[in-house]
Amino acid sequence: xxxxxxxxxxxxxxxxxxxxxxxxxxxxxxxxxxxxxxxxxxxxxxxxxxxxxxxxxxxxxxxxxxxxxxxxxxxxxxxxxxxxxxxxxxxxxxxxxxxxxxxxxxxxxxxxxxxxxxxxxxxxxxxxxxxxxxxxxxxxxxxxxxxxxxxxxxxxxxxxxxxxxxxxxxxxxxxxxxxxxxxxxxxxxxxxxxxxxxxxxxxxxxxxxxxxxxxxxxxxxxxxxxxxxxxxxxxxxxxxxxxxxxxxxxxxxxxxxxxxxxxxxxxxxxxxxxxxxxxxxxxxxxxxxxxxxxxxxx
Length: 298
Fold this sequence. Notes:
Blueprint: H1 2-24, H2 28-36, E1 38-43, E2 46-47, E3 51-53, E4 59-60, H3 62-78, E5 84-89, H4 95-100, E6 106-107, H5 115-118, E7 121-123, E8 128-130, E9 132-137, E10 152-156, H6 160-172, E11 177-181, H7 184-192, E12 198-202, H8 203-212, E13 219-223, E14 229-231, E15 234-236, H9 240-256, H10 258-267, H11 284-291
Parallel strand pairs: 1-5, 1-6, 10-11, 10-12
Antiparallel strand pairs: 2-3, 3-4, 7-15, 8-14, 9-12, 9-13
Helix pairs in contact: 3-9
């Protein structure tokens, strides 16, 4: 009887272990993180206030603060309180490939969600809602897209704005000369130096550049006529367990009121490195998502 009991215990332990391994293997991302003893976070270098470099050249921002909560949940789930955090800079062009090939586990930047990207990667519930707009020099007198006819405008390579500008140009036959910069900072420089008369990008990112400029009043945001678009944290496609963990962490933060407090910290109060205030209170579209977290792109 004793030998049978031992044998049964061995068999039961083996089966239980197999089921545990099977369940854990459902998340390729968590398996990779556990195996490495580290998580790799993708961040942006100039997406104020979501993810950018502070005075000490270390990444800071709203999205990175949100990801800190997610990382806390990952540490608890994997039983790795000393999980190492690796930080990798990404840009509009390489952020999706780096998620797809597993170089980056979680992108904490300013990535907009759309149907095309959902074919390649997955996203969390929305963490922000934006509207693409134009940033122009106040002295230019530009008040709308019609005033841009025949002029040079700049967009950031790999950004949603590339398609928006091309679509607008074709639909309204504006004859725009659309040039692409490597990142948002270069796009802003292109506008500032007069090589383009307008910079098309998400309104909050443009507000960040305007607030950080030497003369905010010399720059004006002009509505682009586009609808609301969600931002979200980005990770590998098809990893349901990892998505559940990320969404759970964000939804919990929204329900507790901590998300709104964090929003106010970055969007309605002075932020580093220059203590500028974006003066960008939470809009109705985001308030709705906070009340009812959703990953819908509608």
